[in-house]
Specification:
The structure holds 2 protein chains of 2 kinds. Chain A is 74% helix and 0% strand. The longest helix of chain A has 29 residues, at 117-145. The termini of chain A are far apart. Chain A has helices at 2-19, 32-50, 54-59, 68-83, 91-98, 104-115, 117-145, 147-154, 163-170, 175-198. Chain B is an all-alpha fold. The longest helix of chain B has 33 residues, at 55-87. Chain B is flat, with a radius of gyration of 21 Å. Chain B starts with a helix and ends in a 7-residue tail after the last helix. The chains are: A mainly alpha, B mainly alpha. Chains A and B meet through α1, α2, α4, α5 and α7 of A and α1, α2, α3 and α4 of B.
Chain lengths: 199, 94
């Protein structure tokens, strides 16, 4: 928990730095965060490759776990369909936002272009919230609802930013499910977002 | 997407090569990288005036969609977990 709070602290610090223009140059459209993400993936790869017991753990994995991304998509879309009763946006707009699966950069760009900056901003906020929630609460979700829910919450980020946290609390045997889950959701983001924006 | 796969694969191969070494410092490096990424995300959000201006009203809508979609995915994946655990017990990993 302390570690996650430090993470959020860095996010807040970044927000303040952005608001008060502490950074002399414009980061928007820069690929700096992309390269840092690659570095993170590389380090995660090293930890996976360095673990000799991983392949044995992989073999013992339940094949029905392949269904996990389907459950994440179905659950997320049902939730965003239900909530459209409470908000001033249509069900398809709400589902387009939900289809970001915490992949805020891609979904907000897509939605801004297809539906305007307002819904695009909602998509950014909603999916940033999902990622921060995942970073903070994956250990709690794991304890209450099991390892699959802990992965499902992370959405498309279980492939990168939340992977280390999932591996730490659910064990390395779930790293493969987590990566697979994140990959499937990563691909589904552009497909589902454009689908719901065109309805 | 393909680049990310290549990067992970490269990491795994390097991890294999270094499998006799003790890589105790790596989790710490990973933590630092996550901090850097979140700092950058914050800067991006903070330096976007559209987002900061409408953060109240848009934020509430975003929060509701976030709340329901996360709840939905937790329920759905928890159901799958219950089914899997009942039909074929997985070793309990604490």
């Amino acid at each position: 928990m302390k570690g996650s709070l430090v993470i959020v602290g860095f996010f807040v610090l970044g927000c303040l730095a952005g608001i008060w223009n502490w950074i002399p140059y414009n980061l928007e459209g820069s690929s700096l965060s992309k390269y840092i993400l690659y570095l993170l993936m590389f380090c995660v790869g090293i930890t996976l490759g360095n673990d000799k017991t991983l392949i044995a753990q992989l073999r013992s994995l339940n094949l029905r776990l392949i269904l996990l991304p389907v459950m994440t998509i179905a659950g997320t879309l049902t939730g965003s369909l239900v909530v459209s009763i409470l908000i001033h946006y249509s069900w398809s707009e709400s589902m387009a936002v939900g289809s970001g699966f915490a992949y805020y950069s891609l979904s907000s760009i897509f939605i801004s272009e297809l539906k305007g900056i307002e819904l695009g901003t909602i998509a950014l906020l909603c999916n940033v919230m999902r990622e921060i929630f995942a970073l903070l609460f994956i250990p709690v979700i794991y304890r209450w609802f099991g390892p699959l829910a802990a992965i499902s919450v992370g959405g498309a980020t279980t492939f990168d930013t939340t992977l280390p946290i999932i591996t730490r609390c659910a064990g390395k045997e779930y790293a493969v499910v987590s990566i697979y889950h994140g990959c499937v959701l990563d691909f589904s983001v552009p497909v589902l977002v454009t689908l719901f924006c065109s309805i | 997407m393909l680049t990310i796969f290549a990067v992970i694969a490269g990491g795994i191969i390097l991890g294999r090569i270094l499998s006799n070494r003790n890589l105790k410092y790596l989790p710490r490096i990973i933590t630092f990288i996550i901090w850097a990424l979140l700092l950058l995300l914050g800067i991006e959000v903070g330096s976007n005036p559209e987002v900061i201006k409408g953060i109240g009203t848009l934020g509430l809508t975003a929060f509701l969609i976030f709340l329901f979609s996360v709840a939905g995915s937790i329920i759905a994946s928890w159901l799958l977990w219950c089914i899997i655990r009942r039909t074929s017990p997985i070793k309990k990993s604490v």
